[in-house]
Amino acid sequence: MKTLGLSLCALATVCVATSVRADTLADVKQRGYLKCGVSQGLPGFSTADKEGHWFGIDVDLCRAIAAAVLGDQSKVKYTPLSAKERFTALQSGEIDVLSRNTSYTLQRDASMGIDFAGVIYYDGQGFMLHKKLGVTSAAQLINASICINLGTTTELNVADFFRSQKIKYKLVTFEKNDEVVAAYDAGRCDVISSDQSGLYADRTKLKHPEDHVVLPEKISKEPLGPAVRHGDNRWGDIVRWTLFTMLEGEELEVGMNTMEAAEKSEKPAVRRIMGAEGELGKNLGLAPDFAKKILSQVGNYGEVFERNLGQSSPLKIDRGLNNLWSKGGLHYAMPFR
Amino acid sequence: MSVVNAKIGAKQSLLQKSINAVLLLILAGLLFPVFKWAIIDAQWAGTDRCTGDGACWVFIKLRLMTFMFGFYETEELWRPSLVLALWAIAIATLFRSTYSRGLKILPAVIVLLPLLSWGLLDGRWFGLPHVETTRWGGLLLSLMITLMGLSLAFPLGLLLALGRMSDLPLIKAGSVAFVELWRGVPLIAVLFMSSVMLPLVLPPGTELDKLIRVLVGVALFTSAYLAEVIRAGLRGVPSGQAEAAAALGLMGWQRLFLVVLPQALRSVIPSLVNSFISLFKDTSLVMIVGMFDLLGTVQQANTDPYWLGYSTEGYLFAGLVYWAMCFTLSRFSMKLEQAR
Fold first, then answer.
1. Does the global pTM surpass 0.90?
2. Could you report the per-residue pLDDT of A302-312, keeping only the tens digit for each?
3. Is A101 part of the contact surface with chain B (CB cutoff 8 Å)?
4. Buried b vs exposed e over B219-244: b needs ≥16 C-beta within 10 Å?
């Protein structure tokens, strides 16, 4: 059995090497739709409504890529993937791009046969507590009892953080996330700790969501980004610049809601991104107005964020690190020239 | 003497009654909060998030079609409904007809119905709009994997059982090796292999539908178990039966299909239904390869940002559906055994 497993593995690796598509762009254009790997359901990132339409920030990136490459944001086929099969699905060509809340790490980038094409959401572990406690920083959490999921990196991060701060704390652990939320809501602990995007989702499950606040501090780094197959640099460029287009759009205030004004604009930067000047699209092997299609059909990063995660969504996540660099965040699009 | 006995009996029954009453009260006390949550305080009407403390059945009501059929095209829902109806009719006919007639219908059911179901659901064979397998889901998917998997596995299992009892060493060794290999791996590993390893091994460019890969995996896995069940039945038939058939001048295959096999299968009906039920419940494992069966659609619905926090209702509903299906099946099999 062991030898069989080993030989299958060897066989698989050989085939990985041969099955990598050299030209995803040509494949997608020929096929006429984009194959996008998403999660099996994560609030705000990728989830399906009751008609089966996918929505979320990860889904919007897929739509943006389809708009850039095919000129139509609706030409996407979504493949829900479990955490375990996501990388194989990308390697085997089952999907063209993995847009599935995946943390950008050295090991994954270097040894999984995939390349990350940027960061769409800067996540990290944080804390949520009741407003009445008046706590504004995690350093004030002295002798606090903390509800968390059992045996995850969450537990490790909390231990590391409080040890480095030399603060005493008490852990209350549970098997399931819903139990953690229920225990916190019932007042069995003062604080709840998890990835911040998850905390905002948990907040909507509480009896009085408006009474609770997520502290701005992050005690771990979880940069979530899209990934493509290693070795197809042209396709990687397209995904990377699709993301940059959404960020640049926000910076230039060009988006779904401001399309009319943008079309009349005389600003050189706006004219370039709208495809009225220069040859930006040609360099990527795309239509000259690829960026305009992204911004008019899907919207810029700010619009996408607000719709899926921000104040116009049930999650009401603060921009924080996910703001533009010019507004105190980390998102920075490389120059469009 | 009898009077004393009667008195003791009366005392005992009085004691028993009071114990029963107390237990009943305790049970009612324990169950009342559940009843209050699920029925009295529950919210049934509306289209928005619930506000009360009770269960929010609105969530289930709005998502019911997803739980039943996954993301199958709404205008085409008559197709999965028809498929499920056909299976229900076929299974009911099988269980209602006499044993020997049922045995004659069975081959038609396990060959024709899976093909017909696939054709109707997929659509392309009949010139209907194509619905991709990724949109099949919910209870429909659970049932399709179970029924199609069993239909594929049954003939294979039969062959394996016969092979294992064969006198030809190569066939016997092959069957034993196959059965032991597939029984030796957990279903979850089979699913992983079919969804994660197989695409890497297939030549580049070939795309085998994920559902087909899963179906083949499930069928091979189940066939090993069915083979052992059927073999047990075959061994249970006294050798005198085959000898008597031979004495009547029946050929080898006639002895098997007309005399031995009918008796063998009859004796293993409970075990076959058992395999059916366990496979039906095991289908929830397909969630780990990114397919949305009944449980998967419930979990998926729980991640809708507009409907967060109703996982209890969702899981309760899924549990009830699973229980109802399995209970019906076991009732059916009990009737079948009595109707010998």
1. no
2. 999 999 999 99
3. no
4. bbbbbbbbbbbbbebbeebeeeebee
